[in-house]
């Protein structure tokens, strides 16, 4: 963590400081795992601000920061840095929180939104970060293999989700990356169809989108299976999505624009006649948060770099029929795609 905060400190001028209020960047820069904290960082000082409940934890996890008790009051705390300008996380602070803070400081400093500046360092992952994401994805792979034996007519989507979640937490995950998606039959046409009480039926598509957290880092994967023998249309749609995904993965290379990777998959689906059935972006970066930047979308003109970890998840969704999404998690290493997801992608008929 030292190198991360030192890099941030070195980028600051003598008259500015950074105030971090959101958990992802608190964790990234300090290693502190509680959301009840703030960081105040200037060119020559670094403070972690928390309350009495977390003093011991902060000493253990953020020993390269000077510890301040929030009971001292923000006026006194901010007086410790000689900064005219305070960069803050405008996307993570409510208007009420911002107004309250500015009022307490009586206008002595000028606040400047610096969210993108603070977040930017997190875009490129270190080897250690990629290894943690890979371990979270490995847990997910094993959970998928485990739950396949339970997907059958009569079991509910919710029961499948609970089995996935229990397996991941029992096998090393500290939390879920997001609410587990299990959508079957016609509901599989809902890209974010959270698990319901619907019972699985023979002939259903079943889409499972899930992930877990390992040592602070998220995973994400999606697989779609068929209960029973797939129909001709189910097989057709599945193979289109699979071909689109593989084309996009093959196109990944450091220096390529993210929007070009998105277009590669989108063209495959459009040429097959389903262009209007793929409405979301192709993928998003993953790290401490499940949705980070850059993303594979028509509007993202960022270049891929070594150290980016990003999903590739094309889909086709047909209302009143069902849908397919296949998602892998890809790290860019040595300029090329390195797939962190190892679950089989050929159509599985249960």
Condensed summary:
The protein is α+β, with helices and mostly antiparallel strands and 350 residues long. It has 2 domains: 2-120, Creatinase/prolidase N-terminal domain (Creatine Amidinohydrolase, Chain A, domain 1); 127-339, Creatine Amidinohydrolase, CATH 3.90.230.
Structure description:
- This protein has helices spanning 2-10, 23-30, 55-61, 74-78, 95-104, 115-120, 127-148, 157-170, 232-251, 258-271, and strands at residues 16-20, 37-42, 46-50, 66-69, 85-88, 110-113, 175-176, 181-184, 205-210, 212-214, 217-218, 221-226, 283-285, 292-296, 309-312, 315-318, 322-325, 328-333, 336-339.
- By secondary structure, it is α+β, with helices and mostly antiparallel strands.
- Helix 7 crosses helix 8 and helix 9 (232-251) packs antiparallel against helix 10 (258-271).
pLDDT below 50 for ≥5 consecutive residues: which ranges? Answer: none
Q: What count of helical segments does DSSP give?
A: 10
Overall average residue pLDDT: 96
Please give the order of strands in the largest beta sheet: 4-3-2-1-5-6
N-to-C series of helices and strands: HEHEEHEHEHEHHHEEEEEEHHEEEEEEE
CATH topological fold name of the largest domain: Creatine Amidinohydrolase
As a percent range, the share of helical residues equals: 25-40%
Radius of gyration: 23 Å
Q: What CATH architecture of the largest domain do you see? A: Alpha-Beta Complex
User: Could you give me the name of the CATH homologous superfamily of the largest domain?
Assistant: Creatinase/methionine aminopeptidase superfamily
- Structural class, by secondary structure, is alpha+beta
- The CATH class designation of the largest domain is Alpha Beta
Number of beta-strand segments: 19
Instruction: Please tell me the total number of domains.
Output: 2
